[in-house]
Write a structure and sequence with these properties.
The protein is mainly α. It has 6 domains: 7-215, P-loop containing nucleotide triphosphate hydrolases (Rossmann fold), CATH 3.40.50.300; 221-283, no CATH class; 297-371, Winged helix-like DNA-binding domain superfamily/Winged helix DNA-binding domain (Arc Repressor Mutant, subunit A, Orthogonal Bundle), CATH 1.10.10.10; 414-623, Serine Threonine Protein Phosphatase 5, Tetratricopeptide repeat (Alpha Horseshoe), CATH 1.25.40; 655-864; 878-932, Winged helix-like DNA-binding domain superfamily/Winged helix DNA-binding domain (Arc Repressor Mutant, subunit A, Orthogonal Bundle), CATH 1.10.10. The strands form 3 sheets. The chain has a 5-stranded parallel beta sheet with strand order 2-3-4-1-5, with helices on both faces. It has a 3-stranded antiparallel beta sheet with strand order 8-10-9. Strands 6-7 form a two-stranded antiparallel sheet. The chain is flat. The two termini are 27 Å apart.
């Protein structure tokens, strides 16, 4: 007898991804039936392709292996006129495998079975006579009872929705006697069936004392990933999981079919980040369209038109809207009922409103595949007419129908709707969607530069967010030309500034200089505020390009901020000018931060407001002013929510990461990186995400030496050659890992403090350490002062040990006061290694072990004379281990997210990392692994 004390991990049959709990429930029922010598009924319900047959097959296999007599039949489409079809297959399939003598014992006196089971010889049967139905029912019951006297019986009818009426009647007859007969009846059927007799049978079985109802749901993203890993032999990448989840809606059959189709067309690529698809939106295999479109051709014209309207909607369609679209308020309820009964339409209620949607995305694909282009455009035009008069229609929905109806409604009417939808998509960080709408709008723009220019600017921003920097620069330069031709110098200068920054990011220094210089020319005839902002952007670009600071300062000296009429704009430009001067080496960071806090609350230029907020974020991190940073994060969030493109800054999540890392909240820092990587901007910020993970790995000892730093890889799995600031950032990380050679001194936006930390913590000489200390002192912040002291302590350790000890003690106490425990522990460990006292090291070691800062913890452990930590298996971060333990406790992803106050997406991403590190593919395996290590 199996032990079901822990049903979550009782078994893990192959191919039952996401169905293990249901499998264990059914096996427990079978075992209980054997133990009590009784019968039961089981109904397995789910939509097409959801895995009913796979679950039934696993139960059947287990039962046969356990000595059950399994009688297995199934209904088939269009077989409903063949009386007793599934029942004959189940009984005959079992009896014909038996020895003749044993078969004769079971069928003795049951001559009516010969009219049901083809080829069955029963003594006394009249082959030419049709048996009375009641005799057949009694004979089937007697047969099952005789078999059950020798072994437990499992009678299975799969695809019950297609079974003939006679089979359904026999099963209804058997229902009340299952317990007495000692037979377990298992039926599987689709969720929606129009047959009253089948619904009546299911209802009757549900009323039995021993009944188990199993409703199979669609897989979530974790289940889709696990299923794909089983099919492919190794984990899929996030993009492929997203594609499969979107196209399959979590239906296992569709996941398998899509993967098999992609594999057959050689469209799958293996890479270090998992499998990817060479086709971002592959066609649906024809056999899936046939499966999910079965019965569409038999629909009445009015029913098919209602289904087409719902499928074309792209989102659940409210009842009132469908009435307007269909134009038949009286006939619509009956049409909807018929479509629901056929399993083609589903109905839900949201906020008291009834809405309709296709039963599955592939039902929509199948229905729309039968529409011609002209008919589809006409239906889109009908949607446009209804939606334009409706309140609060999402921009994407309206754009989708305008694009589909462009030949009917005309380009002049469709273009502004598409452009507005593209801008809205940029604001919510959906660049792929934005690019679709904006490109379509640009195709309708003609040759008018005033129309084309803004569209090209947004297209450039969208391409940059999609990771296509080359295409982004090309679009922005074209936007610059069009906007200048349209007499819009400010917009043209803005486009040129963004083009210059992107050219710098891709290491095109010549192009960056050209675009940056062009901004000054374009702004020459603009208003004073535009001229000042453009000059400041050009000066900052010169610093980024590595020019002498004097060149940038000369540009700033020519800026006449006083000529700007608006007080709020003037004050912010003056503050930002102080910031750029500080970056160029003139002035303290603390003074720049003070200047960036305006006294005037209002500024009409939201781009300038966001630019100043970005600078304040950077300086607050650089200076270690955590209270200022917390306030600024709130401001940045408010500004970013309403912005698009450059207004949605990457500094916010990175600033939050640095704050959590520096203050010892490494689990929170992990969450930030995980959330950032899984966000729509994860691809856009791939270099930053890669660097942050490397940063954490270095401090946790997961990387030993510069050779352990993994290269960032592209979608094809090949290593990417770092360019521009990405290259400098990698050099900084290598320096922190112990690589020899100079650390780049160029300006790294938001990573300037990394350069300083690298100079302080890497194997730098005395001169470099003192120069770093001077740089830190110049910045003038609470977080930089103790870092400068730590640098001087290292520099003077060999020649003036007493002074070094005083510097180190003051640095450690200052870091402690600032709430920066890791920095304080680092200083104390270094000082102890130079011969200073060991006060506070025990507490530091406890903190470092908790955070997982293995290298520094081992140094502290050696100083305290404690044994080395025991070697462990794959290293999980504290947050990953916390998530894994909650999974082991049986919590869902949503419950874990609520417990940890993070998003479900973050929990899913943490689990993906856990699965990869432990080499497992399911929650069940994870539970086993975690329990085996306790």
């Amino acid at each position: 007898m199996r032990n079901y004390a822990d049903p979550v991990i009782a078994s893990d049959p192959a191919g039952l991804v996401g169905r293990v709990r249901e499998f264990d429930r059914l096996i427990a029922l079978l075992d209980d039936s054997v133990a009590h010598r009784t019968g039961a009924a089981v109904t397995v319900v789910g939509e097409p392709g959801i895995g009913k047959s796979a679950l039934v097959g696993a139960v059947v296999g287990h039962a046969r292996a356990s000595g059950w007599a399994v009688l297995h039949g199934r209904g088939h489409d269009l077989e409903g006129l063949l009386a007793f079809g599934p029942l004959a297959a189940a009984l005959g399939g079992y009896l014909h495998r038996l020895p003749r003598a044993r078969r004769a014992t079971y069928t003795d006196g049951l001559g009516s079975l010969a009219s049901v089971i083809e080829g069955l010889a029963v003594e006394g049967a009249d082959p030419g006579r049709t048996a009375d139905r009641s005799r057949v029912f009694q004979a089937v019951a007697l047969l099952l009872g005789r078999i059950a006297a020798d072994a437990p019986v499992l009678l299975v009818v799969d695809d019950l929705q297609w079974a003939d009426p006679a089979t359904v009647d026999v099963l209804r007859y058997l229902g009340d006697d299952l317990e007495a007969l000692g037979v377990v009846l298992l039926v599987a059927l689709r969720t929606a069936t129009s047959r009253p007799d089948v619904r009546g049978l299911v209802s009757a079985l549900a009323r039995l004392p021993r009944h188990e109802a199993v409703t199979l749901r669609r897989l979530d993203a974790t289940g889709v990933a696990a299923l794909a890993a089983g099919v492919l032999g190794s984990p899929p990448g996030p993009a492929l999981v997203g594609l499969l989840e979107r196209r399959s809606a979590g239906t296992p059959l569709v996941v398998r079919a899509l993967l098999q189709d992609l594999r057959a067309r050689d469209a799958l690529r293996a890479g270090p980040g998992g499998w990817t698809s060479a086709e971002p939106d592959p066609d649906t295999p024809a056999h899936l369209l046939e499966l999910f479109g079965a019965g569409l051709d038999r629909l009445a014209e009015d029913r098919r038109r209602v289904l087409e309207l719902v499928c074309l909607g792209g989102e659940p369609v409210p009842h009132a809207r469908l009435v307007e679209l269909a134009g038949d308020a009286d006939g619509l309820p009956a049409a909807v009922d018929d479509l629901r009964a056929a399993g083609l339409l589903v109905e839900d209620v949201e906020h008291g409103r009834v809405r309709y949607a296709p039963a599955h995305p592939l039902v929509a694909d199948a229905a729309l595949a039968r529409l011609g282009e002209a008919a589809r455009a006409a239906l889109h035009a009908r949607y446009v007419a209804v939606l334009e008069s409706a309140p609060r229609v999402p921009p994407d929905v309206l754009a989708r129908h305008h694009l589909g109806a462009r030949d009917v409604v005309g380009p002049d009417r469709a273009r502004p709707v598409l452009a507005a939808a593209g801008s809205a998509a940029l604001r919510r960080a959906a660049p792929d969607t934005a690019l679709r709408w904006l490109t379509a709008a640009a195709d309708m723009a003609g040759d008018d530069p005033a129309v084309h220019g803004p569209l090209l600017f947004d297209i450039g921003v969208a391409r940059q967010q999609c990771g296509d920097t080359t295409g982004a620069v090309r679009a922005l330069r074209e936007a610059t030309d069009r906007l200048a031709a349209a007499g819009q110098p400010r917009a043209a200068a803005t486009a040129s500034v963004v083009a210059a920054r992107l050219a710098w990011l891709r290491d095109d220094l010549t192009g960056a200089r050209r675009s940056s210089a062009l901004t000054l020319e374009l702004a020459a005839g603009a208003d004073p505020a535009t001229r000042a902002a453009t000059a400041q952007a050009h000066a900052l670009q010169l610093v980024c390009l590595g020019d002498e600071p004097a060149a940038a300062l000369a540009v700033l000296d020519g800026v006449d901020v006083a000529a700007v009429p608006d007080p709020g704009t003037r004050e912010r430009l003056a503050g930002y000018g102080r910031y750029v001067r500080m970056v160029a080496g003139s002035g303290a960071a603390a003074d720049a931060l003070a200047a960036l806090h305006p006294a005037t609350s209002r500024c009409a230029d939201e781009r300038l407001e966001q630019t100043c907020s970005n600078a304040r974020l950077e300086l607050a991190v650089l200076l270690g002013r955590w209270s200022d940073l917390d306030a600024e994060l709130v401001t940045a969030q408010r500004l970013g929510e309403g912005g698009s493109g450059p207004l949605r800054s990457w500094r916010t999540p990175l600033a939050l990461f640095h704050r959590r890392f520096a203050t010892g909240d490494w689990a929170g820092a992990d969450d930030v990186v995980t959330e950032l990587a899984a966000s729509p901007r994860g691809a856009q910020w791939a270099a930053e995400v890669h660097a942050l993970r490397a940063w954490m790995a270095l401090h946790r000892g997961e990387v030993t030496g510069p050779q352990g730093l993994a290269d960032r890889r592209g979608p094809d799995g090949e290593p990417l050659v770092p360019q521009g600031p990405d290259r400098d950032l990698r050099r900084v990380l290598r320096a922190l890992a112990g690589a020899p050679g100079p650390v780049p001194r160029g300006y790294l936006v938001m990573f300037e403090w990394w350069r300083l930390l690298a100079l302080v913590r890497a194997a730098a000489g005395r001169r470099e350490l003192l120069a770093a200390a001077d740089d830190l002192d110049r910045l003038g912040g609470p977080g930089t002062a103790p870092a400068a002291l730590a640098a001087r302590a290292r520099a003077s350790a060999a020649t003036r040990p007493g002074e070094a000890a005083r510097h180190a003690a003051l640095a450690a106490s200052t870091f402690d006061a600032l709430g920066m425990p890791v920095d304080a522990a680092t200083v104390r460990v270094e000082a102890a290694e130079r011969g200073a006292g060991r006060d506070g090291l025990a507490a530091d070691l406890a903190l470092l072990d908790r955070l997982g800062a293995a290298p520094l913890a081992e140094r502290a452990r050696r100083l305290l004379g404690r044994p080395a930590a025991a070697p462990a298996g794959p290293v999980l971060t504290p947050r990953e281990r916390e998530v894994a333990e909650l999974v082991t406790d049986g919590l869902s992803n949503a419950a874990i997210a609520e417990r940890l106050v993070v998003s479900v997406r973050t929990v899913t991403s943490h689990l993906d990392h856990v699965y990869t590190k432990l080499g497992i593919g399911s929650r069940t395996e994870l539970a086993r692994e975690m329990r085996s290590t306790h």
